[in-house]
Here is the input.
Amino acid sequence: MGTNVTIARDGLQALIEALRADGREVIGPTVREGAIIYDAIRDIADLPAGWTDRQEAGRYGLEQRADGALFGYTVGPHAWKQFLFPARETLWTMRRTGDGAEVTDGATPASRHAFIGVRSCELHAIAIQDKVFVSGPYPDTNYRARRADAFIVAVNCGQAGNTCFCVSMRTGPKVEGGFDLSLTELLDDTRHDFLIAIGSEAGAAIMQHVPHRPATAADLSAADSAVARAAAGIGRHLQTEGLKQALQAAPEHRRWDEVAARCLTCGNCTMVCPTCFCTTVRDHTDLAGNTARRVREWDSCFTLDFSYIHGGSVRHAPRARYRQWLTHKLANWIDQFGTSGCVGCGRCITWCPVGIDITEEAAAIANAPAAAREAHHEGA
Amino acid sequence: MAATDPAVAADPFLPALYRVARTRRELADTVTLELLPLEGVRPDFAPGQFNMLYAFGVGEAAISISGDAAEGAAFVHTVRNVGAVSGALARMRPGATLGLRGPFGTGWPVAAAEGADVVIVAGGLGLAPLRPAIRHILNHRRRYGRVVLLFGSRNPGEMLFRRELERWRQRLDVEIGVTVDHADPSWRGNVGVVPSLIRHASFDPHEAVAFVCGPEVMMRFTATALLAAGMGGERIWLSMERNMKCAIGLCGHCQFGPTFICKDGPVMRHDVIGGLLSVREI
Amino acid sequence: MKGLDAILEEHPFFAGFAPPHMQLIAGCARNRRFDEGEYLFHEGDPADEFFLIRHGRVALDITPPGRDPIVFETLGPGEIVGASWLVPPYRWMFDARALEVVRAIGIDAACLRGKCDADHDLGYQMMMRFLPILVKRLHATRLQILDVYGRH
Here is the structure.
């Protein structure tokens, strides 16, 4: 472990095949409907060769690259959480019997996944969801099973997106740990190789089926400069110092009213966020009413139903719902799980239909605590 | 899965099956259910904890336990019909089967309060989650100093556990204050809000512990009155309510500032959450 | 039997009152007793006397036309019945009825108003004691209006 080797572009095909031969469903980036998403891949040809993404607040688009890079983009609308923590999952089924009922565990056998192309920010997001789902007194057994079975092939970013801010969150762009294998794409006019770092015994075992050679000093240096290029190109910055205290002290800050005037409370930010974990449950019965199924689904704190208690919703105003999301993500999360809930991937900025920028909103409150209670006083 | 690996805890989402053993109508819209497990024995619980009760095909709701923790084989729950799930639960007849997960959450600090005066302030259905604590304290009466129970209701006809209140009132070792918000002249008791009873109650504010449960606004006013009486926020405990789907800290719904009501509560200290109580729509 | 002065001094409302002020109050005070069901006063009557309850409880009610009276507050030992004597037109706005035998100190309102006008220190002391009671009752009334135990 800690060993670096180099593979050629074809070696990646061998890696995919080795993972499939190991009985895994291989998930990787692929182009679909104008975006790079994560889905099952069978072949290196499924990867987004020669594509890159252009992202701004509220905008996302794909463009052709001048080269044939396989990982020459940042992050798209998908996160790996949809595989470890599916958007919809049957918790259990209950059947009426003659004198009572019987309950059947609804968990489908966990598919053994291999993820290819996991970014550093995404590794941090997975680590954060591990804390949420596994570290408490009641671990989510389905999540834990899927997580334990997942094989992770990380990738170092060779470029940064305009909405990325991993550097200020200390979550990237360099992959530091939490992977079985990590890739750095080494691409220029003369070569298209990948530097591979082996991060686990499982990773080392798989590499026995993948043709490779020892990494040279030149390979390592090329990899370092690729990551440095990404770090230098980071588009945004989130000021974290003092932010938790500032947010928790500012529930009546006038900025909440300003952002609420723009926010559509659509919940896109929560759907694309790689750490958002809130769920609701739905109960379904068959037509005869003898079988009931309880299904857990992703939920969003932006819905009115989310905070409903008999009588009405606690967080009725959009300002209260945006405040809940942002304060939870950047402040309360630290109290709850010992880490920020944000990894700086920038998805919520890109996929917000009106382009609300979490870094701007946080800065507005952190930098102007004096405005904290003005709106409140006006109303008093 | 769980069955093959004893080190792995059982799936906390799976309900155990219970049967309604008895029902008792408390009020027009409120019923007490006694629930017995179809298999095994009910788990132990602490006064103040709650269970998630599942009505077949309708859904699950967090309902606090209203029975005596040291008595009987059943879980006792007092349910008010305020929605689809609670309505289905409140309509259940003896013999009906339902799902149950729990017990969950924090309890009233009945052990920590030993040696101190205890002031219990309940409003409306808030008496139900306090009942296990009251029973515990009265069963171990000598361990406590003065015991005061103050209870407010909407009107005399909507007063929960009226017969049991009468029995408690006959004891000489507990001071009971009952009040209603509205009454006709046939009511000979107090009229007024429950916090206004606090200053007439006999307790040492510096040594007493308060357990408060009721609608949140009532708890806010009550906490203000207890603080005004000289009690420290660290001695005032409130039982909170928020939307709850999982009860195990995973669904995110019950967040109250940095806390999860399901696992950091429902019973929480006023000096910890008091600052949030006055924040609108938190 | 205790003198009126001693009884006044024991009442929590007058805790810490200066002796000269106590004497002025005592000059306006008398002992009162109401049997169960007896009215201390009725809505519309001149508010010429207010009461410091010593024993027993008093119900305050209002009767809407065609309906039963609604009791909106009960008061007990140590509490004060009536504030309308403080502000013109000095008329009671509700009925006050003894729920049981009530022993109280009745204070002649015109007498006390006159002494407060003549001695503003006394007037200030009276206001400092009355206002917190009135504010507390206002807060309680707000909570009552919210009807927090209703189903919504």
In short: Chain B touches chain A at residues 1-2, 8-15, 17, 19, 38, 54, 56-60, 82-83, 86, 97, 99, 241-243, 245-246, 248-253, 255, 257-258, 260, 263, 279-282 (CB under 8 Å). The longest strand of chain B covers residues 16-27. Chain B has a mean pLDDT of 94.
